[in-house]
Amino acid sequence: MEYGIRLIVCNWLSSLSKFATIEIAENVLSEIFNKLSSLDQRVQYLENRKRQLLQIETVLGVNGATDVGIVKKIISMESQIRDMNQQIKELQIQKTHSNQNDHVTTPSVVTFGSPDAGTKRGIQTTHRKQRQATNTTRVAFCAGVAVLHRDHVGPHQPIVFDEIITNVGNVYSGKTGIFRVPVSGQYVLNLVYSAGVSTASPDSYLEIVSDGSY
């Protein structure tokens, strides 16, 4: 009887041990399946990431480039986008100012009546002076003396600058030494003269005569 009880207990313990082993194995398998599922998800994520990187490389035209190169390219594009946004803002500000200037009130147009006789005479005189200024002959001359040394020159004796260098307008005569003014105006004449060391009087000088007056 005692042996029978021991046998039943041993069989029960053996069955219990088998059930425990099966349960442990199922738990291990379940954990393994969970890990495999997690690994599968990670593999799927990495594959998606790889496809995204390949798409970025295709868009940026850097096939085979490293991640560092891609990042630099993206940073450069972001900088260009910021610059373009800044330019857009400036253009918008200029457009706003232009619109404000367009709304400024335009001054009224003042209409004058017909000019009186005095005004007409003034306008005619102004036009005549403008025509005279336009039609005025350009005048310029430069002349010297052919003989540098002249001895025994008496008082009021004319000295003709007979060697003409330039005579624009042909208003100076090298024979008479007379410069004829073509039109009224202001003229500048420059005369260079040296009395020499043998001059008897220190007060010797030359004069330019205008219309017979000294």
Automatic annotation (TrEMBL):
Where composition is biased (Polar residues), the residues are: 96-111
Q: Residue ranges of region Disordered?
A: 96-131
Annotated PROSITE patterns = C1Q
- Database matches in InterPro entries: C1q_dom, Tumour_necrosis_fac-like_dom
* Segments forming domain C1q: 134-214
What name does UniProt use for this protein?
Answer: C1q domain-containing protein
